[in-house]
Amino acid sequence: MHRRPIGRGRSLAVVSAIVMLAGCLLPWYSVGGGADLPVHQLNAFGGSGILVFIAALATVAVVALPYAAGDRPVSVDRWPAYLILAVAAWVGLLYWVVSFLGDTAPGLLPDRAPGLWVAAAGTIALSRAAYDIAHEPGSR
After folding, report:
1. Burial degree of 36 (CB within 10 A; 0-12, 13-18, 19+)
2. pTM for this entry
């Protein structure tokens, strides 16, 4: 059988994908909650943050694909795939923040938007995983 070892980079990619998925489920924006006001919350599924969710799911799929394919080598499990997924997550994350930056900047603080910050940490970790996979021996 010809399967790639999971290695540090791919392990980091899976952990970062799990962190990104958790961040997508937490609120990305929260306002209200005063004496008589209900809390209004948005998460990743309300805008371009869905790209973060899709990139996290695709990362898990790319890591698992060589093990599901059996004896055949899989060409998708290379560093450019992880780089593309990290860039897609960054685009979704940054576009979501820019689209809400005008009126709602106080609502994007970590105490009111924990999901946004958790997803950002996962996206940073996925970027580092892509770097590690690119610099593994035999990855060129």
Report:
1. exposed
2. 0.86
Cβ-contact 82, 65 below 8 angstroms: no
Hey, CA dihedral for 70, 53, 80, 127, is it positive or negative?
negative
According to DSSP, the residues that pair with 32 across neighbouring strands are 39
Give the whole-angstrom CA distance, residue 116 versus residue 50: 12
pLDDT tens for residues 73-102? 678 888 899 999 999 999 999 998 888 766
Residue 63 token pair: 């890591």
Query: How many angstroms separate the Cα of 106 from the Cα of each of 29, 63, 110?
Result: 10, 37, 10
Measuring CA to CA, how many Å separate 2 from each of 6, 9, 65? Answer: 12, 18, 13
